[in-house]
């Protein structure tokens, strides 16, 4: 599906999302490496996590042309292969719909981000229109995860990001793809979030 979604305008969303990314970056579920051409020159290093072997081979091939060092790692979102507070940005696009445990994946993103670091996300999510959300509930309980490799259409991912201890700083909601009939996976969000400081009570 990767070339099809790039033709439908994914590249523009990737470029807009990633324009402020800098420093050491970790990408969760890098897929075929579609985000790679959109990382700005301020990126110094990328750790690309991808659990699926065929996709990992593709992101490895794509990484050969990158302007910064890329390490491709066989790992999953809820067990990221880097130290605490060791990256400036975590990038996650079209992945939180299919991770088994969103809260665990987002807790890991928070663990690895250095103070002041940012989460960059682009995901399809639960519709804010109740009738569409009901359709999403039905397809998620039946066919969608089976045909979509564990993908769910009705997850409230922005709420999950906030519940994981992030403050959303920037948020766009839009339909993707823009053209054609609306589908259960059409409602999308794109944005950035920063981890809230941990407060300790005395
Ligand atoms: C729809 S693709 C998106 C790929 C890429 N991020 C993009 O924007 O084109 C979903 C990706 O999430 C990966 N994935 C699925 N479950 C995962 C998990 N638990 N941890 C990390 N990646 C996962 C898949 O292997 C696949 O690469």
Distance between the termini: 52 Å
Total strand segments: 7
Quaternary form: single chain
Rg of Cα set: 16 Å
Low-confidence regions: none
The overall pLDDT, averaged over residues, is 95
Shape: globular
Strand order in the sheet with the most strands: 3-2-1-4-5-7-6
Q: What small molecules are bound in this structure?
A: S-adenosylmethionine
Percent in strands = 25-35%
Q: How is the biggest beta sheet arranged?
A: 7 strands, mixed
What is the helix fraction of residues, given as a range? 25-40%
Number of helices: 6
Q: Would you list the SSEs in sequence order as H and E?
A: HEEHEEHEHHHEE
Q: State the secondary-structure class.
A: alpha/beta
Summarize the structure.
This protein is an alpha/beta fold and 202 residues long. Helices cover 31% and strands 27% of the residues. The chain has a 7-stranded mixed sheet.
Describe the structure.
- This protein has helices at about 1-20, 55-65, 100-110, 130-140, 145, 155-165; strands at about 25-30, 45-50, 70-75, 85-95, 115-125, 165-175, 185-195.
- By secondary structure, the protein is of the alpha/beta class.
- A 7-stranded mixed beta sheet has the order 3-2-1-4-5-7-6.
- Helix 3 (about 100-110) links the parallel strand 4 and strand 5 (about 115-125).
- The termini are far apart.
- About 40% of the residues are buried.
- It binds S-adenosylmethionine.
- The site of S-adenosylmethionine has 19 residues, from loops.
- S-adenosylmethionine binds near residues 51, 52 and 93.
């Amino acid at each position: 599906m990767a070339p099809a979604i790039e033709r439908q305008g994914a590249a523009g969303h990737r470029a807009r999302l990633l324009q402020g990314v800098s420093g050491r970056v970790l990408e969760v579920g890098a897929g075929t490496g579609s985000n790679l051409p959109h990382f700005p020159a301020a990126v110094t290093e990328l750790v690309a996590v991808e659990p699926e072997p065929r996709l990992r081979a593709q992101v490895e091939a794509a990484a050969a042309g990158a302007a910064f060092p890329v390490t491709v790692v066989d790992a999953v979102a809820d067990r990221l292969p880097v130290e605490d507070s060791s990256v400036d940005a975590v990038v996650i696009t079209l992945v939180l719909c299919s991770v088994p445990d969103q809260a665990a994946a987002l807790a890991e993103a928070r663990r690895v981000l250095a103070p002041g670091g940012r989460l960059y996300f682009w995901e399809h999510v639960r519709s804010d229109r109740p009738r569409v959300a009901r359709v999403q509930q039905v397809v998620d309980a039946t066919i969608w995860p089976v045909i979509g490799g564990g993908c769910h259409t009705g997850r409230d991912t922005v709420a999950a990001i906030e519940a994981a201890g992030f403050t959303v700083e920037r948020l766009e909601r839009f339909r993707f793809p823009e053209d054609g009939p609306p589908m259960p996976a059409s409602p999308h969000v794109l944005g950035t979030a920063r981890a809230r400081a941990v407060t300790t009570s005395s």
